[in-house]
Amino acid sequence: MGDSKRHRILMVSDFFYPKFGGVENHIYLLSQCLLKLGHKVVVMTHAYGNRSGVRYMTGGLKVYYVPWKPFLMQNTLPTFYGTLPIIRTILIREQISLVHGHQAFSTLCHEALMHARTMGYKVVFTDHSLYGFADVGSIHMNKVLQFTLADVSQAICVSHTSKENTVLRSGLPPEKVYVIPNAVDTAMFKPAAERPSGDEIVIVVISRLVYRKGVDLLVEVIPEICHMYPNVRFIVGGDGPKRVRLEEMREKHSLQDRVEMLGAVPHARVRSVLISGHIFLNSSLTEAFCIAILEAASCGLLTVSTRVGGVPEVLPDDMIVLAEPDPTDMVQAIKKAISILPIIDPQEMHNRMKKLYDWHDVAKRTEIVYDRALKCSNQSLLERLSRYLACGAWAGKLFCLVMIIDFLLWRLLQLWKPADDIEVVPDIVLSHDEDRGISQDFQAFNKDHSLR
Amino acid sequence: MTKIQLANSQYLYKHDDCEGRHPLDIHHIVIQRNSALVFLVHLFALLLFIKAIYLCLLNGTLGTIFLLSMLSSACLVKSYYGTLIEKESVVIIPSLGVQLEAHYWSGRVVRSFIPIDKILKPVLNENVTPFTCYWSLVLLIHSKKELILAFKVVKPPVKLLVPIWKALCAATYSGETTDSPAEDK
């Protein structure tokens, strides 16, 4: 790859390792694949406990844990301008050419994108979640999103449903929004050499036990299925505030021997739980993409899921049975899944998944978005302010004011600490073993995780 | 004795190489004083002093205000020279150890000595604060959890730290590790 096409990307999000989840996973694996494509990637997140400062991960991925304490749901306190000096320092010392923010809930991401635009950098934003329109929280959240996205170069969503949602929430022109689905590490999620034999059918549920994941639906579906099929057993992995509801249900219907509760399952152990079952049950009430379904399908499990958000886009029709988020419909779907189970071949399913989803493909598609973002024309402050002004009668003026103050502060910082005084960090070049698959990277990530 | 000098607007790097029966390798990082700030401190102290004399002549007695003014101007100058550091030095004594020195304007020198066999490796570290990033030169010590900062107060740019780090690497390199300073950089 020529040096001219080599991007220098700063990934910003409040959500990153050592916490574990879909966004964290996405940033890590995308960064690893981009590093392999020859780009430079630096991650910026807030400090987690005593994990503060600079860390290096597999493949020379540099992570800045900025010592701003999280205050709510792993988010840093929104200070608007507090992070400007450190973001400017990192952008200059790492010679960044493009800033990529992740997740609409991340305050650090919003601030970084705002400052980066003020400094004239091109920015890309990835939205990983669906969000409502009606409640007070959503209305405010959507206004913030409108503010950030008013000036973003390009945006990425993980599914078409998510794109529709983001466009409606933020008023972003649809031609600026790209759909790049998540992927799965098929090398890590392989089916078992031998399928669990016998008459018994095992249904696996792995998710955080929270309202959003539809635990209340499970509470009604599980006893019904256990009553209809004496040979069905459930394995429930995950923890959360709704766990007590499931335990109550288990006691009430005396299903202690039919419903196994595993508690929190570390990501490294997810495969071993998945391969002990035949059917994967996902009862989410809202979902932009759902990586859990991909992992289950990659392990050769037939999936039963609620038809919500981007879920119907994830798998081909013959690999998934969809149901409305309603207990009766879900019971019917599980019945259908049990009936078609004998014709499912886990290995064949795994091979199909291998062709469908690959993180390297995600990285290549993201690279195209970066190229297009860099081709966007540079705009003056006045041109950018006019965009903010169009955001709303009062909000527009407020956004303009926020941007003008940001611009003045940036100019002040330039006088106080000129860019020439900030030292550029030498790049650390690691020799890549070309044959090494992403699975090894992923295993290293899990190892890092276990070392926490 | 050879001297290598590197400098930026804030710091000056000096290198003394004493040869002889007891060779020493001394690296200094000297703080370059901002002349405007020095001028302001002295001007402020002088103004306080003049004000005190004026009040004294006006009243004809040595009042509390006079004493307070004198005391505060003295404190100002004392605090400026007394607590601030003039330079910090790393003295490498071959085959013996490393001495870290902090020279204050008051003439006070704080020294700490680390035997060579205790030093595992000198490291250039990147530090992140809520507002900025800077480099520091630290020493990894055998069987000790904390790192030892070579320069406790001064935060020179990495180009001034690299020659000191290389010298420390050369002094502590025992041939056990495979990486040389050049590879690390």
Overview of the structural elements:
The complex is a heterodimer of chains A (452) and B (185). Chain A has 452 residues and is α/β, with parallel strands linked by helices. Chain A has two domains: 3-183 and 360-447, Glycogen Phosphorylase B (Rossmann fold, 3-Layer(aba) Sandwich); 201-351, Rossmann fold. Chain A has helices at 22-36, 84-93, 107-118, 136-149, 160-170, 215-228, 243-252, 270-274, 291-298, 311-314, 327-340, 346-356, 359-375, 381-389, 393-416, 438-450; strands spanning 8-12, 40-46, 53-57, 61-66, 70-72, 75-76, 98-102, 122-127, 154-157, 177-179, 201-206, 232-237, 259-263, 279-282, 302-306, 320-323. In chain A, β7 (98-102), α3 (107-118) and β8 form a beta-alpha-beta unit. In chain A, α1 (22-36) packs across α16, α2 (84-93) crosses α3 (107-118) and α6 (215-228) crosses α11 (327-340). The longest helix of chain A is centred in the C-terminal third of the chain and has 24 residues, at 393-416. The two termini of chain A are 36 Å apart. The model of chain A is unreliable at 433-452 (pLDDT under 50). Chain B has a domain at 5-31 and 116-184. Helices cover 34% and strands 35% of the residues of chain B. With 185 residues, chain B is of the alpha+beta class. Chain B starts with a strand and ends with a helix. Chain B contains four helices and nine strands; from the N terminus they run βββααββββββαα. In chain B, α1 (35-59) runs antiparallel to α2 (64-82). In chain B, the strands form two sheets. In chain B, strands 1-2-3-4-5-6 form a six-stranded antiparallel beta sheet, with helices on one face. Chain B has helices at 35-59, 64-82, 158-172, 181-184; strands spanning 5-7, 11-18, 24-31, 85-93, 97-104, 109-115, 119-128, 133-141, 148-149. In chain B, β4 (85-93) and β5 form a beta hairpin. Mean pLDDT of chain B is 80; it is low at 176-185. The A-B interface holds A 52-54, 64-68, 82, 85-86, 89-90, 93, 421, 423, 425-426 and B 9, 126-133, 135, 157-159, 185.
